[in-house]
Amino acid sequence: MAHLTLLIHCKDQKGIIASVTNFILDHGGNTTYIDQHVDAQENVFFMRLECFFEQADFNVELFTKTFAQDIGNPFEMQWQLYPATQKLQMAIFVSKYDHCLYDILGRYNAGELQVNIPFIVSNHKDLAHIAANFDIPFYHIPVTKDTKALAEQRQLDLLREFKVDFIVLARYMQIVTPTIISEYTHRIINIHHSFLPAFVGAKPYHAAFARGVKIIGTTSHYVTEELDAGPIIEQDTIRVTHSHTIPDLIAKGRDLEKIVLSRAIKLHAQHKCFVYGNKTVIFT
Amino acid sequence: MAHLTLLIHCKDQKGIIASVTNFILDHGGNTTYIDQHVDAQENVFFMRLECFFEQADFNVELFTKTFAQDIGNPFEMQWQLYPATQKLQMAIFVSKYDHCLYDILGRYNAGELQVNIPFIVSNHKDLAHIAANFDIPFYHIPVTKDTKALAEQRQLDLLREFKVDFIVLARYMQIVTPTIISEYTHRIINIHHSFLPAFVGAKPYHAAFARGVKIIGTTSHYVTEELDAGPIIEQDTIRVTHSHTIPDLIAKGRDLEKIVLSRAIKLHAQHKCFVYGNKTVIFT
Amino acid sequence: MAHLTLLIHCKDQKGIIASVTNFILDHGGNTTYIDQHVDAQENVFFMRLECFFEQADFNVELFTKTFAQDIGNPFEMQWQLYPATQKLQMAIFVSKYDHCLYDILGRYNAGELQVNIPFIVSNHKDLAHIAANFDIPFYHIPVTKDTKALAEQRQLDLLREFKVDFIVLARYMQIVTPTIISEYTHRIINIHHSFLPAFVGAKPYHAAFARGVKIIGTTSHYVTEELDAGPIIEQDTIRVTHSHTIPDLIAKGRDLEKIVLSRAIKLHAQHKCFVYGNKTVIFT
Amino acid sequence: MAHLTLLIHCKDQKGIIASVTNFILDHGGNTTYIDQHVDAQENVFFMRLECFFEQADFNVELFTKTFAQDIGNPFEMQWQLYPATQKLQMAIFVSKYDHCLYDILGRYNAGELQVNIPFIVSNHKDLAHIAANFDIPFYHIPVTKDTKALAEQRQLDLLREFKVDFIVLARYMQIVTPTIISEYTHRIINIHHSFLPAFVGAKPYHAAFARGVKIIGTTSHYVTEELDAGPIIEQDTIRVTHSHTIPDLIAKGRDLEKIVLSRAIKLHAQHKCFVYGNKTVIFT
What we know:
The structure is a homotetramer of 284-residue chains.
Chain A: E1 2-11, H1 16-26, E2 29-39, E3 44-53, H2 60-72, E4 78-83, E5 88-94, H3 99-109, E6 115-116, E7 120-122, H4 128-133, E8 138-140, H5 148-161, E9 166-169, H6 178-183, E10 188-192, H7 204-211, E11 215-222, E12 232-239, H8 246-269, E13 273-276, E14 279-282
Parallel strand pairs in A: 5-6, 5-7, 5-9, 7-8, 9-10
Antiparallel strand pairs in A: 1-3, 1-4, 2-3, 10-11, 11-12, 13-14
């Protein structure tokens, strides 16, 4: 018995859906859910499919191997197969702001997120008590100019030791190193407190105030080497007026940040985000 | 050559997607788009699928007949097949308010709506000049207590003469008769100026004002015999404050009404609305 | 030196603003902020005004007494005067859901709410650990058919002992007793998980699912004897689709509930809510 | 008898509100509405006030002159006084897109906008029929490299002849000349089809598509010499997904553009927009 999630992307061509769903049927399974998209400009086909095998002796390894031979290779697909109920290992990096962390851990406790959280890393000790309250190991790894290399090594050690699948930067106020970015390509989720591409970089609420915008936003995106320029997963906005000071914008923004980051986490944990080029296909 | 839209709904069962897409492939076609939903409570399967046949001698009648034999009947499906680029015949019923009518006709002219508009019916003459400006025949059919039966007959005659597929009540301030409702089951779209099920019936903005709500809404739904109780197609809301008078609510509401009604029209015209029970499945 | 917030409501009449601001000026103060509203239907005038007195020997008692004589009584005003930086005493009642509680306490810690929280009351022990983590006394007061009177007495004792100004029902799944409601008229804030007046009463997400709405909402209101019928403080809404199950609606709703309840708390704590009739004037 | 709107902005200082409202009371008037704002950073005071004089022999000229002497000059105010029911003269410039024009004229007909529209100018003839349908004079003024100076002169002649108060660029696809901008400083309202400051310049929907944003926006702002950089009056946003093509974004954007531009027109026509620095104070 197995419940699987299959992700496919490849050049668009005739017969993909029929071939895949027929293959599943031929192996005794049933396709219970399909999301699919064709990027007509780039001629790329994307599919996320859930399927169910009721037979007691279903052999995932064999199915996977046969799928590669019969479908994956002939269609030149990039594809992954996940147990649909598997929980990914998610590490959280924080600094001093607690609103995103509380929001994530509250949902984690409520069973809303399909992840395990093996540990929280921070360059400060301020939020250790929250980790303790939720019974999650907390590692204080200070990052200074001199300790940068050492800090990166400690972070990598932890990530590898706990077989972390993806990293969430929950208002982590440090640049993640290129080594970690390259080891976790499209698997590091950041929350940037502006409506990207407006107000890239530091102090976006100050910049929004100076420009006199009537709406502020927040953006969750995958981290790439270029700052705040990675593929966007989710955004949201809220109205402001001339009467809002910068601290007001910051307070209003916190409500957006925590909601938007948690939405992005859920989407990633359920394998609903495809990255291609510098954009995402999000199956909601 | 043909581009078809296929709508299916039936009891959920194994192999539907594979069988349908394989059938299409076997007949030389390609499935280019799938939307699908399973109502787990009711165990009902819904699918909207677009497919493309490139062969010059493609025979739709034959394909349709074979599909019924090989797929539709065995799976006990309710299904429809439409040419994907076909334009439905859409009649508009109005009274005196012009904002929805202008919005619809503006989009119609811009090529945004996939419909033909054979005529506009009204129980008043006020909006005849708009119909004239957009070169659409306008029929003034007064509705009074005495002329009700006659009015219904004239409306039915027009609907039949122009082979109307669906009717849009663009703030038509009359009750549509049971005969017309039953002839156009789930094919009459109304816009009700409240966030249903709140404020059913007349004067919803007055009721919203009296209750002191902080948000008003509007609802587009299919007309059924019970007033304002039909399956909901689309809704939207907007914030209001204590400083808004009833005329302010009415003015703000107009912006919602015209946008929401036009969205519902687009969804219906593209065969993206399934009705089952008293609810809708909307593939956007 | 003093920074005061003055709330006024009375029959609309000529010269109110001039008289009040002039009185403040004559007593050496400056009006720094005015919000004002006239309900033209009811002919009622509302004003919230902040003023600042720089003199070292400013005497609030004397000012208050003179204001009553010279302004309040002649205009037949209902009015209150608060130190603008005063923190109200806010009690929190909870049951088993933790999302609103975490949200409130997170903001409390961040200094976002202008209140003190002397204690948390619950009819269950489940959330005691959260109270402990935030160092707030937690009282477990079970409510059963037999202990109802006793429970009410214990609640009243606590409310009085800590001179509680207002009560927040953060998903407290019990009916508050008429005695407490009458002692805290328009000072008990509830969060109801629907877009009122739609879906009054129990299980609103189930009702919303059954009706097939495309948007769900949440409402924060003052508690009155009639269930879910009190003056509305704040509402918000979010889109849903046919693909959302009842648990999905509940999860989505949690995000609305915590944000909307916290907004209502802030408005009340800053004396920005007037209640009249069964409606509110909210100065944001 | 008179109903006046008074706009004030000046250095923040003690006693402004008291002095102004008292002055009005002393001249037999009543202040019926106040909106007020202090920019604490810049130390600037803003106020919009409506007042009502019931006496039959009220002399506006005398009141204005005395106000200048007793209040305006001593406080070094910049101030304007308008009859509250006066309609401003609003010119509309269009090119080929009709959605904003239809929206504006529909509201104009419904009495929703407090303006007169003496004429519509366009560099193309395409929308002349709409002007005709609404009985508004239409001037076709082509703009080419060679006729630019001539076109500007014809535009200026019209603006002066009809004593135009402000200009609305309803998707006018030409740059307005510096001469006109300087003659109509902060009195030309543009609609830019992006969420400024993101996507300044041409083809913002293409740029939004390329960046893969999950929300698009639109911005109404006063025109200044620097392109798309003037003070923002109003903005709004709407969600999009990976499945939306560029034409889809354009169609969705049209709905935002027409609503947002019309909101900005209403605010300006009711003297609810203050410009200072490069920002606005908007009293709604």
